């Protein structure tokens, strides 16, 4: 079959790899009908995630048609149309039983190695390094889904692939980001990053009762899309983010701040205007300002900082003094996708949200290597790429 494979920093190829096979009784094989490139894939493209091997099949936003099921899988049958969560979860362990699917303690075969780095292992993920299991991803013609009687959700007739696809990751992730803010109605939520995840966080914050959303980025098309969803926007290269948020909140700060950026190796500058203030305020003497620091500073006393942007490793110079003195709450996670799927599927069915709004590029797998670059460099108005193998 054809698949997108990783060969090192900025080196993604579309090539032939062996077809996946059923390996366990609960597996299923799906024929991929649509898949997407995620901002998390860009961390692999940028070479900042450890433990990738040359030839690894990429991709964790996938849906398709079931073509084979393992002998013990009673939940799926050949012909079912399903969306596959990016988190691989057994459904039975301590964490899965409590709805913390992305903490599954059984699905990562390399858990011991992961625990050496992180203390404990999170769940296995598709197409996301050997530290997270080395599972082949779904930017491919076929995908083996482990624990396929737990993860995949059936797509109702009448719902298109493009409407359903983002249930695999970015819709639940944006929704979780807003859910973490514990909104009661009437709040101001500031969101850093208007990539696909930020866009779903904006829509979700409004769905959950926010009165105002302030969206921060610098890419014109992304700011435009944020405004179309009702957000007030700040271009961080042209405006002082802290001052503008102060102005908008009577000097109090935003009720909740969402980091939908995470590791940004190439664009972690652009905060010159506030570097000095952050230096003074936190005594850290750093020359590298950061989204998370800005989110902490811009959050009101006793507000919430919700982090869904992915960080690969250690992160220094976080102003914990500010957070503790002002009573901030921190929430963060790899999304336990399965936990959110039923309610988000229902919201799409009811017409509360049409997830296709974020798609700017439709392509084939062969176009994938070029589109990784287009998406990373934010060329050609690119916000979300969907590929149809
Ligand atoms: P993306 O790279 O398309 O979007 C990131 C956006 O942040 C870009 O538009 C960029 O211009 C903007 N940005 C960069 N520096 C900024 C700054 N200083 N201030 C404000 N905005 C800035 O990626 P995406 O697909 O939207 O994903 C966003 C993040 O979410 C990534 O880190 C990704 O790994 C992560 N993610 C996490 C989960 C999860 O389970 N927690 C799931 C999916 C994605
Ligand atoms: Zn993702
Ligand atoms: Zn589990």
TrEMBL record:
Keywords: Metal-binding, Zinc
Enoyl reductase (ER) domain sequence ranges: 8-387
Recorded superkingdom: Bacteria
Gene3D superfamilies: Medium-chain alcohol dehydrogenases, catalytic domain, NAD(P)-binding Rossmann-like Domain
Gene Ontology MF term list: metal ion binding; oxidoreductase activity
Cofactor(s) named in the record: Zn(2+)
Pfam families: ADH_N (PF08240), ADH_zinc_N (PF00107)
CDD domains: FDH_like_1
Official protein name in the record: Alcohol dehydrogenase superfamily, zinc-containing
Organism: Rhodopseudomonas palustris (strain HaA2)
